[in-house]
Amino acid sequence: MSEYINGNSTTDNKQGHAIIIGGGIIGLSSAYYLQQSGWQVTLIDATDLSDSCSYGNLGMIVPSHFVPLAAPGMIAQGIKWMLNSRSPFYVKPSLSTDLISWGLKFIQSATPQHLEHSAIPLRDINLFSKSLYEELSIKPGFDFSMEKKGILMYYKTEKVGEEEVHLGEKARGMGLDVVALSKNEVQALEPETELDVLGAVHYRCDAHLYPNQLIPQLITHLKNLGVQFVTHSKVVKMETGAGKITKVVTQHNTYSGDIVVAAGGSWLPQLTKMAGVKIPLMPGKGYSFTIEQPKQKLNIPAILCEARVAITPMHGYMRYGGTMEIAPVNNKINRKRVEGIVQSIPRYFPGLQVEMPSEKDTWYGFRPCTPDGLPYLGYSRKINNLIIAGGHAMSGLSLGPASGKLVAELANREKTSVSIDAFHPDRFS
User: In angstroms, rounded to a whole number, what is the distance separating the alpha carbons of residues 55 and 49?
Assistant: First the structure.
C-alpha cells in the first residue's frame, strides 16, 4: 500500500517512554508495535484487563465494512427502530448536551458524499489490519484460531437483497473478493443448515478469529518483553505544560512519558478532556452470548442483514451478537435487546433454535462510536505528544493491529503505511 506523511514534522525519532491509557485491543496493539520499534512502554488500565470490549465481540476481520455507521438512510431507519424495544439500533432519549451534539453531527455526516469519501480509507486500513493479523498468527506464542473463510451477508427480502448485491458490486469495483450467491449456492456452503433466505453476498476477503485466545496471548507476549502493566489504576488527571502532557496521574501513582497514547475506548472523551482536548464520542452498547457445545454450527460467519445480527463459529463455539444502544455507560442488561437477537436467528435458520441466555451468560460491552462512523487516529494539534486512537465502534477487533502499527509509526515520526487523513482526531474542532 502507498505511504503517506501524517501530522507533525518528520524529524529523526528518539525512542523513549510511551504511556498507553487503555488495555483493549487498540491499546495492546499499540504496545506491541511501540515495543517492537524500541519504545519503553507502560500500559495503564482501570480494570484487570479480563473483560474489555475486545473479549466479547464477534471476532470478525472485515475489509467488507467500508460503509460507516453514519450512512444515508440510517436516520430514517433509526427512527423506525426506536419504536421497537427489540430492534438492533436504539438511541436512548436524553437531554445530555454530549448526546445532542453527537446526534447533530451524526445527522450532518450521514450523506452520500461522506459515504463516498470514507470507503477507500476504511477499506485500506482493514486490509492492512488483516495482513498484520496474518503475520501475527504465525509468530511463536500466538494461536488465535484465525480462519479466512469470509463472511456471508444473508438477506430475506428483495429490497435488502438489491442493496446488498449493489454494495457487493461496489466492493468488487474497489478490488475486494466478493461474490453474490443464490439460495442454492449459499446452501451448498452450509449443507447441514436449513436456510430461509433469498440469498447471500459472500465477502471472501473477510476473516475471523477467537478473541478470547488473542487477548491473553498478546498480554503474555508483552509482559515477557518487558511492557509494564499498571492495572486497577484509573487515570484521574493529566498535567500539561508547553503544549505537552507532562504527567499522567492515577489514584495510586504519577507517570511521565515522551508520548501518551489515549486508547480508552468508550471512556476516551473523559481522558482527552483531562488534557484539554474535546472529542465527540458516545458509547454504543452491544450484546453477545456464546454457546460452548452447540448442537449445530455454521461453517462460515454470518451477518443477518435485516436483523443486524452477527454469528461466528469460533474455536468450536458459536457466538451470537448484535444491537447498538447509544446511551451513557450503564451496567444494565436490556433483556429485550437480547431477545431481539435470539428471535431473529430461526427466521434465517429454522433449524437453529437458540435458547434465551441467562443474564450471567450474556456479555455486553460499549463500542466507542464517533459521529461520522470513522475512528480517531492521529496526533492532537493542541497537545503535541498526545496520540489519540479510538472510536472504532464495531470494528475495534478488526482494526486493532493496523491502529497499533500506525500509532507506532506516528510516535516514530515515520510515514504511515496507509493514509489516516480521514481519521484525524481534530476533525470536529
Answer: 10
Q: What is the per-residue pLDDT across 292-321, written as a single tens digit (0 to 9) for each?
A: 989 889 999 999 999 999 999 999 999 999
C-alpha cell at 202: 459472500
**Is residue 279 within 8 Å of residue 425, measured between CB atoms?**
yes
Amino acid 338: pLDDT: 93
- Which residues, in sequence order, are CB contacts of 173 under 8 Å at separation 6+? none
**pTM, 2 dp:** 0.93
Enumerate residues 6+ apart whose C-beta is below 8 A from 208: 58, 59, 60, 61, 146, 147, 149, 151, 301, 312, 314
Q: What DSSP letter does each residue of 376-424 carry, written as one string? A: EEEE-SSSTTEEEEE-BGGGHHHHHHHHHHHHHHHHTTPPBSS--GGG-
Closest CA to 286 of 346, 326, 313, 314: 326
DSSP state of 232: S
pLDDT at 25 over 50: yes
Helix axes 25-36, 396-411, angle to 10 degrees: 30
What is the number of other CB atoms lying within 10 angstroms of the CB of residue 109? 22
Residue 85 has pLDDT above 70, yes or no: no
Q: Report yes or no: 56 and 24 within 8 Å, Cβ to Cβ.
A: no
Q: Which of 22, 64, 410 is nearest to 421 (CA)?
A: 410
Instruction: Say which residue the cell 477487533 belongs to.
Output: 397
Q: Which helix (H) or strand (E) holds 188?
A: helix 183-189
User: Of 213, 167, 225, whose CA–CA distance to 43 is shortest?
Assistant: 225
Say how far apart CA 111 and CA 106 lie, in whole Å.
10
With b meaning 16 or more CB within 10 Å and e meaning fewer, what string describes 1-10?
eeeeebbeee
Residue 274, C-beta contacts closer than 8 angstroms, at least 6 positions apart: 235, 237, 238
The residues near 298 (Cβ < 8 Å, ≥ 6 apart) are 190, 193, 311, 313, 318, 349
